[in-house]
Amino acid sequence: MTNIVYVSERLDADLPLDTFLALHRSHSSRASNAFLVTPATDKSESVAHAFARRHGFEHVHSPMGMAARFTRSNLHLIRSCHLFDHPDALKRGLDFWLALYAELRPEIVLTDSSIACLLAARIHGTPTCVLDFGFFVPNLEQEATVYAADIRMRTANDCDRSAIRQDEHHLLDVCNATLRGFGAPPLLGWRDLYQCGTLLRLSSPACAANPAIAASSYRGLLAAPPVPHAPWPLEGGNHPKVIVSLNPAFRMSHLVLAVLSQQPAWNVVVVIHGAVDSLTKMYGRSNIRFVSCEMEQGLAVKGADLLVCHGSHRAVASAVVEGVPVFLLPMNTEQQMRARQVFARGFGLFSANAGDQHADIEGCLTRMLASPVLTARARAEKRMVRQVAPADLVAELARSIMPAPQQATHRPILDRTAESRCDFRSLDVVFVSYDEPNADLHWADLVSKVPHAKRVHGVQGFDASHKAAARAAETHRFIVVDGDNVVDREFFAIDTEVPRHLRQAVWTWSSSNRVNGLLYPFGGVKAWTRDIVLQMRSHEAAGAGSRIQHDFWNQPHYYAFQPSFSDTRIDHSPFQAFRAGYREGVKLTSWGGAVKTGTDLNKTALTPQYKRLAAWMTLGADIPNGPWAMLGARLGCLAVLSGSVDAGHINDYPWFRRRWGDLLVQCGVANMTDACDPGMSSARVPQAALERQLAVARASLASASGALSFEELDPVRSAAVKAAMGASRRQVTELFKPFGLHDGF
Question: At 24, phi and psi to the nearest 5?
């Protein structure tokens, strides 16, 4: 019995489950076990795990993969993976893969995007195959491929090539410093990152995102069995037929569905991965049929006049094989690039060609359905496309790789400190406080539950205080409790098995915020390891532009979970509430730097991040000092939209004191910054002045965003909304259940 490992770091419509399944079925005669390895996120749980269960794969969680970021080059894409920030981070990632390969002894590893698994396979001597769909692996005969950073038509000359070279040098330095520690040979150039046993480009020029790849290097599209077509809702007549495959979490998806719901003469089938009940209620009409399908199922477009999709490789390939024109609403860089390719080849348009208003979309779809030119070009692409049978690829892999595994370059040195079981009673617990006015109360509460707890107090800076906590701890893994947090007693009695991918990672659980009723990993209890803390450079110690300048969880091996074991109490004083609200206002608004204007913010209106921001700005009138948290969140949001704050400010305690002093003056109170106690609890502001500041901030937000408008909730309504949120929240008992963006409401 042989083992085959399939690895992907994509968790959206581009996750190639259909390809993995087709190859595995063709290889099943070799009596093999299949392992599907994906990053441990909520999407992985709901999509990949369900797929594995249906088809007999074992699902394995890996450390976090690449971030879904808008990137300027394939090198920047790899660098956006947190594993490549620092050699220590990459080492922990490679430790995971080497331990996995040592345990599974795979015959071959197939991946579509994971550089870390390829590097580890090279160290371990495991055969590899990369499945490329015309985006991830560049043309290795040319210099680093430059990707446009936005949806507009751009050329490589628009991008900063010095930044590309900077990325190249950074990646090589990090990788080679790590490989030296494993006794492995260094990478001689950036192209070596993609080194594998076999490279299979399973695409065609019409579907590929990267125009720099030679057409002759493509093997063709993977032939798929025919997919049954859902019945068209309208029978008879000459009705235009439209297939729609969209993500309902994307704002433009709803705009398109609204347009289609007002076209009674159009025959529309909407294919959704997941439940369709809510969409049916919103947009269901006699001419629209909603169909739910699994992620690995192909898209049946035969007989359609138009396909509307985001631009995943699978969707565009389905259209090319059947000669159907395409309208695309790209959500990420790869889809944007593919949309430009489709437009350039003349068989489709994308949202930038149409605009983002109802009338623009309606007019564009109407013109496309009436255009014989688009249909002719789509049919021409169909005649040119090549398809390859999965069995042929499997036979090729068997001849070239499987009979002759590579020899390991060295004996892997695995980190044996990673625990397979953890008893929280044996861990050191460190209470970290600075100037929280309720810290002493919370410390007394903690000591009553954990008598051996230690305290670190008065160390300025998030990075510095956590390093002090790591030095105070004597156990390899230790628990950190923030000064404004009260933890449940039963948490400290947990004794649990630790999943493989979490054994060298940071664990953080959700916390309940009594000001606004939110439940998410804001200030929750955490379990760190000493080496991770002592090696990291976060917050005030992070370099300019670092992803962990805002918060800890933008780093590798940092996992957030759904269960809540604590309450965050940030309302003991006006200043404490204001500072907490301001910090979250900045973080939730900025999206790590992606949002800079009101227009940017409006594009996030359907996201959970936006809902949390709205909760911070509107809920809390029923709690003493709650309105100060609301005001802080509003002013933090405004600061981002006006460009008057940078990431470092929200971690700068002296800056916050000055900002508080300025606010007191605006409220008609003398500047009491120097006279206040550490918690700033002695400031007394007339209620009318506070309400005036809230009203001014609300009006300013409406003006800055053009759409962010809300009414003030009185204490009764605020309490009622929070009660409703709590009543609808499902209880989670699984300790390591990943926290997803949509969780906690």
Answer: -65, -40
Strand-pairing partners, residue 669, are: none
> What is the CATH code for 2-201?
3.40.50
CATH annotation of 423-568: 3.90.550.10
Contact of 64 with 39, CB cutoff 8 Å: yes
Given a contact cutoff of 8 angstroms between Cβ atoms, the answer to whether 337 and 147 are in contact is: yes
What are the residue ranges of helices labelled H in 182-222? none
Which residue blocks in 296-432 are alpha helix, DSSP H?
A: 313-322, 333-345, 351-354, 358-369, 372-384, 390-400
Instruction: Please report, for the chain, the start and end positions of each structural domain, with discontinuous segments joined by +.
Output: 2-201, 241-388, 423-568, 574-713
- Determine the Cα–Cα distance for residues 100 and 58; give it in Å rounded to an integer: 13
- Residue 108's closest CA among 128, 78, 137? 128
**What crossing angle do the helices spanning 372-384 and 313-322 adopt, rounded to 10°?**
100
Q: Is the CATH number 2.60.40.4070 carried by domain 241-388?
A: no
Which two tokens mark 688?
């009318």
Residue ranges of E strands in 438-577 = 454-457, 477-482, 485-487, 495-497, 506-513, 519-520, 526-529, 558-568
Q: What confidence tens digit (pLDDT) does each residue in 197-247 have?
A: 888 899 999 998 888 788 888 989 988 777 777 789 988 778 999 999 998
pLDDT band at 45 (very low <50, low <70, confident <90, very high): low
Per-residue pLDDT band for 38 (boundaries 50, 70, 90) equals: confident
Q: Give 688's contacts (C-beta < 8 A, 6+ positions apart).
A: none
DSSP 146: B
Task: Kindly state the tokens that stand for 10.
Answer: 């994509």
Residues 6 or more apart whose CB falls under 8 angstroms from that of 727 comprise: none
Confirm whether 2-201 and 423-568 share one CATH topology: no
pLDDT in tens, 77-107: 676 666 777 788 888 889 889 989 998 999 8
Rounded CA separation 591/445 (Å): 35
- DSSP string across 575-616: HHHHHHHHHHHHHHHHGGGT--SHHHHHTTTTSHHHHHHHHH
How far is CA 644 from its chain centroid?
27
Q: What is the pLDDT of residue 492?
A: 96
CA-CA distance, 180 to 186, in Å (whole number)? 7
66: confidence class by pLDDT, cuts 50, 70, 90 = low
Q: Based on the number of CB atoms within 10 Å of its own CB, is 403 exposed (0-12), middle (13-18) or buried (19 or more)?
A: exposed
Q: What is the dihedral of CA 162, 163, 166, 171, to 10 degrees?
A: -140
Q: What are phi and psi of 66, to 5 degrees?
A: -70, 150
pTM of the model: 0.77
The dihedrals phi and psi of 193, each to the nearest 5 degrees, come to -60, -30
- Rounded CA-CA distance 167/630 in Å is 40
